[in-house]
Amino acid sequence: xxxxxxxxxxxxxxxxxxxxxxxxxxxxxxxxxxxxxxxxxxxxxxxxxxxxxxxxxxxxxxxxxxxxxxxxxxxxxxxxxxxxxxxxxxxxxxxxxxxxxxxxxxxxxxxxxxxxxxxxxxxxxxxxxxxxxxxxxxxxxxxxxxxxxxxxxxxxxxxxxxxxxxxxxxxxxxxxxxxxxxxxxxxxxxxxxxxxxxxxxxxxxxxxxxxxxxxxxxxxxxxxxxxxxxxxxxxxxxxxxxxxxxxxxxxxxxxxxxxxxxxxxxxxxxxxxxxxxxxxxxxxxxxxxxxxxxxxxxxxxxxxxxxxxxxxxxxxxxxxxxxxxxxxxxxxxxxxxxxxxxxxxxxxxxxxxxxxxxxxxxxxxxxxxxxxxxxxxxxxxxxxxxxxxxxxxxxxxxxxxxxxxxxxxxxxxxxxxxxxxxxx
Length: 424
Hints:
The chain is mainly beta. It has helices spanning 2-15, 404-422; strands spanning 19-20, 26-27, 38-45, 58-60, 63-68, 71-76, 82-87, 100-102, 105-110, 114-119, 125-130, 142-144, 147-151, 159-166, 172-179, 188-190, 193-197, 208-215, 221-228, 236-238, 241-245, 250-256, 262-269, 279-281, 284-290, 296-302, 308-313, 323-325, 332-335, 344-348, 354-358, 373-374, 380-383, 388-394. The protein has a 5-stranded antiparallel β-sheet with strand order 1-16-17-18-19, with no helix packed on it. Strands 2-28-29-30-31 form a 5-stranded mixed β-sheet, with no helix packed on it. A 4-stranded antiparallel β-sheet has the order 3-34-33-32, with no helix packed on it. β8 and β9 form a beta hairpin. The longest helix has 19 residues, at 404-422. It is globular, with a radius of gyration of 23 Å. The termini are far apart.
Protein backbone atom coordinates (compact mmCIF):
# COMPACT_ATOMS: atom_id res chain seq x y z
CA UNK A 1 0.00 0.00 0.00
CA UNK A 2 2.86 2.37 0.87
CA UNK A 3 4.41 1.84 -2.57
CA UNK A 4 1.01 2.47 -4.18
CA UNK A 5 0.71 5.85 -2.43
CA UNK A 6 4.23 6.82 -3.49
CA UNK A 7 3.63 5.71 -7.08
CA UNK A 8 0.39 7.64 -7.48
CA UNK A 9 1.88 10.89 -6.18
CA UNK A 10 5.08 10.32 -8.22
CA UNK A 11 3.14 9.51 -11.40
CA UNK A 12 0.99 12.61 -11.13
CA UNK A 13 4.07 14.75 -10.45
CA UNK A 14 5.51 13.45 -13.74
CA UNK A 15 2.23 14.29 -15.49
CA UNK A 16 2.57 17.89 -14.30
CA UNK A 17 6.28 18.36 -14.94
CA UNK A 18 5.39 20.88 -17.64
CA UNK A 19 4.47 23.31 -14.86
CA UNK A 20 6.89 24.94 -12.42
CA UNK A 21 6.22 26.30 -8.93
CA UNK A 22 8.37 27.21 -5.94
CA UNK A 23 7.30 25.16 -2.94
CA UNK A 24 7.14 21.35 -2.79
CA UNK A 25 4.40 20.16 -0.45
CA UNK A 26 4.90 16.38 -0.86
CA UNK A 27 7.86 14.34 0.42
CA UNK A 28 8.66 10.66 0.71
CA UNK A 29 10.98 11.19 3.68
CA UNK A 30 10.27 9.29 6.91
CA UNK A 31 9.19 12.22 9.05
CA UNK A 32 8.15 11.75 12.71
CA UNK A 33 4.46 10.87 13.01
CA UNK A 34 4.00 10.49 16.79
CA UNK A 35 4.68 13.18 19.43
CA UNK A 36 6.65 10.69 21.52
CA UNK A 37 9.06 9.99 18.64
CA UNK A 38 9.62 13.65 17.71
CA UNK A 39 12.81 15.29 18.94
CA UNK A 40 14.19 18.82 18.67
CA UNK A 41 17.54 18.26 16.93
CA UNK A 42 18.55 21.91 17.10
CA UNK A 43 17.24 25.44 17.19
CA UNK A 44 18.81 28.81 16.56
CA UNK A 45 17.58 32.26 17.57
CA UNK A 46 17.92 34.76 14.71
CA UNK A 47 15.32 37.36 15.69
CA UNK A 48 12.99 38.49 18.47
CA UNK A 49 9.58 39.02 16.83
CA UNK A 50 7.77 39.02 13.48
CA UNK A 51 9.23 42.47 12.78
CA UNK A 52 12.82 41.21 12.62
CA UNK A 53 12.13 37.51 12.17
CA UNK A 54 14.42 35.42 9.98
CA UNK A 55 13.10 34.26 6.64
CA UNK A 56 11.41 31.01 5.86
CA UNK A 57 14.29 28.50 5.54
CA UNK A 58 15.41 26.77 2.35
CA UNK A 59 17.42 23.53 2.04
CA UNK A 60 20.19 23.19 -0.52
CA UNK A 61 22.52 20.20 -0.53
CA UNK A 62 23.67 19.80 3.11
CA UNK A 63 22.82 23.28 4.32
CA UNK A 64 19.91 25.45 5.36
CA UNK A 65 19.89 28.99 3.94
CA UNK A 66 18.13 31.73 5.90
CA UNK A 67 17.98 35.50 5.51
CA UNK A 68 18.23 37.30 8.85
CA UNK A 69 18.49 41.07 9.22
CA UNK A 70 21.10 41.99 6.60
CA UNK A 71 22.82 38.60 6.65
CA UNK A 72 22.41 35.52 4.51
CA UNK A 73 23.22 32.60 6.79
CA UNK A 74 24.44 29.19 5.65
CA UNK A 75 23.65 26.68 8.39
CA UNK A 76 24.85 23.11 8.93
CA UNK A 77 21.71 20.99 8.51
CA UNK A 78 22.89 18.44 11.11
CA UNK A 79 23.67 20.70 14.08
CA UNK A 80 22.29 24.18 13.33
CA UNK A 81 25.67 25.93 13.39
CA UNK A 82 26.24 28.91 11.07
CA UNK A 83 29.16 27.89 8.87
CA UNK A 84 29.19 30.96 6.60
CA UNK A 85 27.37 34.27 6.28
CA UNK A 86 27.27 37.11 3.78
CA UNK A 87 26.17 40.74 3.89
CA UNK A 88 22.96 41.59 2.05
CA UNK A 89 22.07 45.10 0.83
CA UNK A 90 18.64 45.00 2.52
CA UNK A 91 16.50 42.91 4.85
CA UNK A 92 13.85 40.25 4.15
CA UNK A 93 10.33 41.70 4.29
CA UNK A 94 9.09 40.30 7.63
CA UNK A 95 10.73 36.99 6.68
CA UNK A 96 7.58 35.76 4.89
CA UNK A 97 9.27 33.97 1.99
CA UNK A 98 12.42 31.88 1.61
CA UNK A 99 15.50 32.43 -0.49
CA UNK A 100 15.66 30.17 -3.52
CA UNK A 101 18.79 28.03 -3.87
CA UNK A 102 19.30 26.31 -7.22
CA UNK A 103 22.18 25.54 -9.57
CA UNK A 104 24.78 26.77 -7.10
CA UNK A 105 23.16 30.18 -6.63
CA UNK A 106 21.09 31.57 -3.75
CA UNK A 107 18.52 34.18 -4.79
CA UNK A 108 17.30 36.48 -2.00
CA UNK A 109 14.06 38.52 -2.17
CA UNK A 110 14.66 41.67 -0.11
CA UNK A 111 12.90 44.81 1.04
CA UNK A 112 12.80 47.95 -1.14
CA UNK A 113 12.14 45.91 -4.29
CA UNK A 114 15.52 44.19 -4.27
CA UNK A 115 16.73 40.77 -5.40
CA UNK A 116 20.32 39.79 -4.57
CA UNK A 117 22.13 36.67 -5.80
CA UNK A 118 24.98 34.84 -4.05
CA UNK A 119 27.30 31.99 -4.91
CA UNK A 120 26.07 29.13 -2.68
CA UNK A 121 29.60 27.81 -2.14
CA UNK A 122 31.66 30.96 -1.59
CA UNK A 123 28.75 33.19 -0.45
CA UNK A 124 30.08 36.00 -2.63
CA UNK A 125 27.49 38.44 -4.00
CA UNK A 126 26.96 38.00 -7.73
CA UNK A 127 24.47 40.75 -8.59
CA UNK A 128 21.78 43.05 -7.17
CA UNK A 129 18.52 44.09 -8.83
CA UNK A 130 16.60 47.12 -7.53
CA UNK A 131 13.06 47.71 -8.79
CA UNK A 132 11.90 51.17 -9.85
CA UNK A 133 8.73 51.00 -7.73
CA UNK A 134 10.37 49.32 -4.74
CA UNK A 135 8.14 47.51 -2.29
CA UNK A 136 8.18 44.59 0.10
CA UNK A 137 9.47 41.35 -1.38
CA UNK A 138 6.57 39.09 -0.41
CA UNK A 139 6.38 36.71 -3.37
CA UNK A 140 8.39 33.48 -3.61
CA UNK A 141 11.00 33.44 -6.35
CA UNK A 142 10.40 31.03 -9.25
CA UNK A 143 13.19 29.98 -11.62
CA UNK A 144 12.57 28.62 -15.12
CA UNK A 145 15.10 28.09 -17.93
CA UNK A 146 17.47 30.79 -16.71
CA UNK A 147 14.72 33.33 -16.00
CA UNK A 148 13.80 34.45 -12.50
CA UNK A 149 10.28 35.60 -11.60
CA UNK A 150 9.18 37.48 -8.48
CA UNK A 151 6.97 40.36 -7.36
CA UNK A 152 6.65 43.18 -4.85
CA UNK A 153 3.95 44.87 -2.77
CA UNK A 154 3.62 48.50 -1.63
CA UNK A 155 0.07 48.85 -0.29
CA UNK A 156 -3.48 47.65 -0.94
CA UNK A 157 -4.16 50.48 -3.42
CA UNK A 158 -0.68 51.28 -4.75
CA UNK A 159 1.12 50.07 -7.87
CA UNK A 160 3.88 47.48 -7.66
CA UNK A 161 5.79 45.40 -10.18
CA UNK A 162 6.09 41.74 -10.99
CA UNK A 163 9.43 41.19 -12.74
CA UNK A 164 11.28 38.73 -14.90
CA UNK A 165 15.07 38.85 -14.51
CA UNK A 166 18.00 37.17 -16.18
CA UNK A 167 19.14 34.85 -13.39
CA UNK A 168 22.78 34.99 -14.48
CA UNK A 169 23.31 38.75 -14.27
CA UNK A 170 20.14 40.21 -12.71
CA UNK A 171 19.20 42.30 -15.75
CA UNK A 172 15.53 43.13 -16.21
CA UNK A 173 13.78 41.18 -18.98
CA UNK A 174 10.28 42.61 -18.39
CA UNK A 175 8.10 44.06 -15.65
CA UNK A 176 4.33 43.97 -15.15
CA UNK A 177 2.71 46.77 -13.11
CA UNK A 178 -0.49 46.16 -11.17
CA UNK A 179 -2.47 48.24 -8.67
CA UNK A 180 -2.44 46.35 -5.37
CA UNK A 181 0.79 44.53 -6.15
CA UNK A 182 1.75 40.97 -5.40
CA UNK A 183 1.47 39.56 -1.88
CA UNK A 184 2.44 35.88 -1.42
CA UNK A 185 1.78 35.48 -5.15
CA UNK A 186 3.43 32.25 -6.26
CA UNK A 187 2.87 31.63 -9.98
CA UNK A 188 2.86 28.41 -11.93
CA UNK A 189 4.34 28.05 -15.40
CA UNK A 190 2.74 26.03 -18.18
CA UNK A 191 4.53 25.89 -21.51
CA UNK A 192 4.99 29.53 -22.64
CA UNK A 193 2.75 31.07 -19.99
CA UNK A 194 3.12 32.27 -16.42
CA UNK A 195 -0.13 32.13 -14.42
CA UNK A 196 -0.06 34.77 -11.71
CA UNK A 197 -2.40 35.96 -8.97
CA UNK A 198 -2.42 39.41 -7.36
CA UNK A 199 -4.13 41.66 -4.83
CA UNK A 200 -7.35 43.26 -6.04
CA UNK A 201 -6.20 46.90 -5.65
CA UNK A 202 -8.86 47.62 -3.02
CA UNK A 203 -8.95 47.80 0.75
CA UNK A 204 -11.86 45.35 0.68
CA UNK A 205 -10.67 41.73 0.58
CA UNK A 206 -13.88 40.55 -1.12
CA UNK A 207 -13.84 42.97 -4.07
CA UNK A 208 -13.24 41.49 -7.51
CA UNK A 209 -9.67 40.67 -8.41
CA UNK A 210 -7.77 39.05 -11.27
CA UNK A 211 -5.49 36.18 -12.11
CA UNK A 212 -3.30 36.77 -15.16
CA UNK A 213 -1.92 34.54 -17.88
CA UNK A 214 1.27 36.21 -19.08
CA UNK A 215 3.69 35.32 -21.82
CA UNK A 216 6.68 34.22 -19.76
CA UNK A 217 9.18 35.66 -22.25
CA UNK A 218 7.60 39.10 -22.75
CA UNK A 219 5.16 39.70 -19.88
CA UNK A 220 2.34 40.43 -22.33
CA UNK A 221 -1.15 39.53 -21.10
CA UNK A 222 -2.59 36.47 -22.86
CA UNK A 223 -5.76 36.38 -20.75
CA UNK A 224 -7.28 37.46 -17.43
CA UNK A 225 -9.60 35.61 -15.08
CA UNK A 226 -11.94 37.60 -12.82
CA UNK A 227 -12.06 36.22 -9.28
CA UNK A 228 -13.43 37.10 -5.85
CA UNK A 229 -10.91 38.81 -3.58
CA UNK A 230 -7.14 39.00 -3.17
CA UNK A 231 -5.19 36.01 -4.49
CA UNK A 232 -2.49 35.43 -1.88
CA UNK A 233 -1.25 31.89 -2.36
CA UNK A 234 0.59 29.72 -4.81
CA UNK A 235 -1.20 28.29 -7.82
CA UNK A 236 -0.96 24.49 -7.83
CA UNK A 237 -1.00 22.15 -10.81
CA UNK A 238 -2.31 18.60 -10.71
CA UNK A 239 -3.25 16.12 -13.42
CA UNK A 240 -3.56 18.87 -16.05
CA UNK A 241 -5.66 21.21 -13.90
CA UNK A 242 -4.78 24.29 -11.82
CA UNK A 243 -6.01 25.31 -8.37
CA UNK A 244 -5.81 28.38 -6.11
CA UNK A 245 -7.59 30.01 -3.17
CA UNK A 246 -8.52 33.61 -2.29
CA UNK A 247 -8.86 35.76 0.82
CA UNK A 248 -12.54 36.16 -0.02
CA UNK A 249 -12.94 32.46 0.78
CA UNK A 250 -13.06 30.70 -2.58
CA UNK A 251 -11.20 27.83 -4.21
CA UNK A 252 -10.84 27.89 -8.00
CA UNK A 253 -10.07 25.21 -10.57
CA UNK A 254 -9.25 25.90 -14.22
CA UNK A 255 -7.41 24.69 -17.30
CA UNK A 256 -5.26 26.66 -19.73
CA UNK A 257 -5.37 26.14 -23.49
CA UNK A 258 -2.42 26.30 -25.88
CA UNK A 259 -2.95 30.05 -26.40
CA UNK A 260 -2.78 30.82 -22.69
CA UNK A 261 -6.55 31.27 -22.36
CA UNK A 262 -8.44 30.24 -19.21
CA UNK A 263 -10.94 27.45 -19.89
CA UNK A 264 -13.25 25.18 -17.87
CA UNK A 265 -13.18 27.47 -14.82
CA UNK A 266 -15.14 26.56 -11.70
CA UNK A 267 -15.14 27.69 -8.08
CA UNK A 268 -16.57 26.80 -4.69
CA UNK A 269 -17.04 28.95 -1.61
CA UNK A 270 -15.10 27.93 1.48
CA UNK A 271 -16.06 28.55 5.11
CA UNK A 272 -13.49 31.35 5.37
CA UNK A 273 -10.47 33.07 3.87
CA UNK A 274 -7.51 31.09 2.65
CA UNK A 275 -3.92 31.96 1.76
CA UNK A 276 -2.78 28.34 1.79
CA UNK A 277 -1.23 27.02 -1.42
CA UNK A 278 -3.19 23.87 -2.34
CA UNK A 279 -1.24 20.64 -1.88
CA UNK A 280 -2.72 17.77 -3.87
CA UNK A 281 -2.11 14.03 -3.60
CA UNK A 282 -4.26 11.01 -4.53
CA UNK A 283 -6.92 13.36 -5.93
CA UNK A 284 -7.32 15.16 -2.60
CA UNK A 285 -6.65 18.87 -2.01
CA UNK A 286 -5.26 19.97 1.37
CA UNK A 287 -5.62 23.63 2.39
CA UNK A 288 -5.80 25.78 5.51
CA UNK A 289 -8.98 27.85 6.01
CA UNK A 290 -9.63 30.72 8.44
CA UNK A 291 -12.46 30.64 10.99
CA UNK A 292 -12.93 33.58 13.38
CA UNK A 293 -9.92 35.74 14.16
CA UNK A 294 -6.84 33.54 14.37
CA UNK A 295 -8.83 30.29 14.55
CA UNK A 296 -8.81 27.94 11.59
CA UNK A 297 -8.96 24.43 10.24
CA UNK A 298 -7.37 22.10 7.74
CA UNK A 299 -9.73 21.10 4.94
CA UNK A 300 -9.55 18.22 2.48
CA UNK A 301 -11.43 18.58 -0.81
CA UNK A 302 -12.04 16.35 -3.79
CA UNK A 303 -9.85 17.52 -6.68
CA UNK A 304 -12.56 16.79 -9.25
CA UNK A 305 -15.69 18.23 -7.63
CA UNK A 306 -14.10 20.65 -5.10
CA UNK A 307 -16.46 19.20 -2.48
CA UNK A 308 -15.18 19.23 1.12
CA UNK A 309 -14.39 15.69 2.31
CA UNK A 310 -12.99 16.35 5.79
CA UNK A 311 -12.27 19.21 8.17
CA UNK A 312 -10.21 19.22 11.35
CA UNK A 313 -9.84 22.13 13.78
CA UNK A 314 -6.33 23.45 14.34
CA UNK A 315 -4.63 25.46 17.10
CA UNK A 316 -4.86 28.48 14.81
CA UNK A 317 -5.35 29.52 11.19
CA UNK A 318 -2.99 27.49 8.94
CA UNK A 319 -2.00 30.21 6.48
CA UNK A 320 0.90 28.47 4.78
CA UNK A 321 1.24 25.47 2.53
CA UNK A 322 0.97 22.12 4.33
CA UNK A 323 3.45 19.25 3.95
CA UNK A 324 2.50 15.63 3.19
CA UNK A 325 4.62 12.51 3.50
CA UNK A 326 3.99 9.36 1.47
CA UNK A 327 6.62 7.32 3.35
CA UNK A 328 4.10 5.23 5.28
CA UNK A 329 0.99 3.12 4.65
CA UNK A 330 -1.13 6.22 5.10
CA UNK A 331 -0.68 9.89 4.29
CA UNK A 332 0.45 12.16 7.14
CA UNK A 333 -0.18 15.91 6.90
CA UNK A 334 1.97 18.49 8.71
CA UNK A 335 1.06 22.11 9.26
CA UNK A 336 1.98 25.20 11.23
CA UNK A 337 -0.64 27.74 12.40
CA UNK A 338 -0.77 31.50 12.87
CA UNK A 339 -1.18 31.45 16.64
CA UNK A 340 0.91 30.75 19.71
CA UNK A 341 2.66 28.48 20.68
CA UNK A 342 3.70 28.17 17.01
CA UNK A 343 4.43 24.46 16.87
CA UNK A 344 3.82 21.63 14.43
CA UNK A 345 0.52 19.76 14.04
CA UNK A 346 0.38 16.30 12.45
CA UNK A 347 -2.86 14.93 10.97
CA UNK A 348 -3.50 11.27 10.14
CA UNK A 349 -4.75 10.88 6.60
CA UNK A 350 -6.87 7.87 7.59
CA UNK A 351 -8.53 8.90 10.85
CA UNK A 352 -8.11 12.64 10.17
CA UNK A 353 -7.24 13.34 13.79
CA UNK A 354 -4.80 16.09 14.72
CA UNK A 355 -2.03 15.95 17.32
CA UNK A 356 0.60 18.40 18.52
CA UNK A 357 3.75 16.84 17.11
CA UNK A 358 6.03 19.54 18.55
CA UNK A 359 5.44 22.44 20.93
CA UNK A 360 8.29 24.95 21.43
CA UNK A 361 9.55 25.91 24.87
CA UNK A 362 7.99 29.09 26.30
CA UNK A 363 10.88 31.36 25.26
CA UNK A 364 10.54 30.23 21.65
CA UNK A 365 6.78 30.44 21.23
CA UNK A 366 5.00 32.75 18.79
CA UNK A 367 2.62 32.88 15.86
CA UNK A 368 3.70 31.11 12.69
CA UNK A 369 3.02 31.52 8.97
CA UNK A 370 6.08 29.53 7.91
CA UNK A 371 5.63 26.40 5.82
CA UNK A 372 7.47 23.26 6.85
CA UNK A 373 10.26 21.77 4.75
CA UNK A 374 11.64 18.25 5.13
CA UNK A 375 15.26 17.18 4.76
CA UNK A 376 16.20 13.86 3.15
CA UNK A 377 16.24 12.12 6.54
CA UNK A 378 12.77 13.44 7.46
CA UNK A 379 13.80 16.34 9.70
CA UNK A 380 11.14 19.09 9.70
CA UNK A 381 12.56 22.63 9.53
CA UNK A 382 10.63 25.88 10.04
CA UNK A 383 10.60 29.18 11.96
CA UNK A 384 8.06 31.13 14.00
CA UNK A 385 7.59 34.73 15.15
CA UNK A 386 9.85 34.27 18.19
CA UNK A 387 12.68 34.57 15.67
CA UNK A 388 13.68 30.94 16.23
CA UNK A 389 14.43 28.36 13.56
CA UNK A 390 13.65 24.77 14.56
CA UNK A 391 14.76 21.36 13.26
CA UNK A 392 12.51 18.56 14.52
CA UNK A 393 13.41 14.97 13.68
CA UNK A 394 12.84 11.42 14.85
CA UNK A 395 14.40 10.00 18.00
CA UNK A 396 16.97 7.29 17.43
CA UNK A 397 15.40 3.84 17.49
CA UNK A 398 15.99 1.94 20.69
CA UNK A 399 16.63 -1.80 20.43
CA UNK A 400 14.15 -3.83 22.54
CA UNK A 401 15.56 -5.43 25.67
CA UNK A 402 16.61 -9.02 25.08
CA UNK A 403 14.57 -11.83 26.63
CA UNK A 404 15.98 -14.21 29.27
CA UNK A 405 16.47 -16.97 26.68
CA UNK A 406 18.21 -14.57 24.25
CA UNK A 407 20.61 -13.58 27.05
CA UNK A 408 21.32 -17.30 27.83
CA UNK A 409 21.97 -17.97 24.12
CA UNK A 410 24.38 -15.02 23.95
CA UNK A 411 26.17 -16.28 27.07
CA UNK A 412 26.53 -19.82 25.61
CA UNK A 413 27.84 -18.40 22.32
CA UNK A 414 30.40 -16.28 24.18
CA UNK A 415 31.50 -19.30 26.22
CA UNK A 416 31.90 -21.47 23.10
CA UNK A 417 33.89 -18.71 21.35
CA UNK A 418 36.19 -18.55 24.39
CA UNK A 419 36.75 -22.33 24.45
CA UNK A 420 37.46 -22.45 20.70
CA UNK A 421 39.99 -19.64 21.04
CA UNK A 422 41.86 -21.62 23.74
CA UNK A 423 42.51 -24.48 21.30
CA UNK A 424 43.66 -22.34 18.40
